[in-house]
Specification:
Order of helices and strands: HHHEEHHEEHHH
Structural class: mainly alpha
Strand content: 5-15%
Shape: globular
Largest sheet: 2 strands, antiparallel
Oligomer: single chain
Helix content: 55-70%
Number of helices: 8
Distance between the termini: 35 Å
Number of domains: 1
Strand order of the largest sheet: 1-2
Length: 216
């Protein structure tokens, strides 16, 4: 799951617009940002197997980011940080935490059984990665539904311009690149490329926040 995670960010922004957009966008991939850092540090383990259908990731050890208890902890930490550090309203802070929590549920749909239910417990995943066409349709479908709700809310708020379409175009472009140019280098190169994409999306969302704050 890649751009499908951002569907949660768009849906949350539509439902609870008082949080800055960048907090939702970062929250959607916070678990993977942490995962990338821990993989580069050698704490969590992954490899690439180009023989696998769809996604070549082999995620052998990631209890601190993708284990269900860990994701609950990450979501609670994000919600508390949004409330106490960013001073967001309680409902908006809860929404940020729920976006982080959504990561595990969306991953459950597509991952092979590599998501730990607990520390040292069984691993689960429905494995849609093994069916590339339906998996891509799922991701883009979720994004389209959430984008419709987000666009409707932005219309009610009087936000126009090209920033929202450009953000969606960025997400779709990143997804297309991941399809037509799957990772061929080592694990570290793949992780760095993924982290760059997450941070690029977050930066774009932050710039949208700044632009719309100036207009308002």
């Amino acid at each position: 799951m890649f751009v499908g995670h951002y569907a949660a960010a768009l849906a949350a922004k539509a439902a609870q617009p008082k949080a800055p957009f960048w907090t939702y966008v970062l929250g959607a991939q916070l678990v993977d940002v942490a995962w990338g850092g821990l993989v580069l540090a050698g704490v969590e383990k992954m490899s690439l197997d180009p023989r696998l259908p769809g996604n070549p990731l082999v995620l052998s050890h990631m209890p601190y980011t993708h284990g269900l208890p860990a994701v609950v902890a990450w979501s609670l930490a994000a919600g508390l940080a949004a409330f106490h550090l960013l001073k967001l309203p309680r409902a908006a802070a809860i929404a940020v935490g729920l976006v982080v929590l959504s990561h595990w549920g969306l991953d459950f749909l597509v991952h092979r059984p590599d998501l730990p239910l607990g520390f040292g417990g069984p691993k689960v995943g429905l494995g849609w990665w093994d069916y590339p066409a339906p998996e891509q349709a799922l991701e883009l479908g979720l994004l389209a539904i959430a984008a419709t709700a987000w666009g409707w809310r932005r219309g009610l708020q009087g936000h126009g311009g090209w920033s929202a379409p450009l953000f969606l175009a960025l997400l779709v472009s990143l997804q297309l690149v991941s399809i037509v140019a799957p990772p061929t280098g080592g694990a570290a190169q793949m992780v760095i490329a993924s982290l760059s994409a997450y941070l690029l999306a977050t930066l774009f969302a932050w710039l949208m926040d700044q632009t719309e704050r100036r207009i308002a």
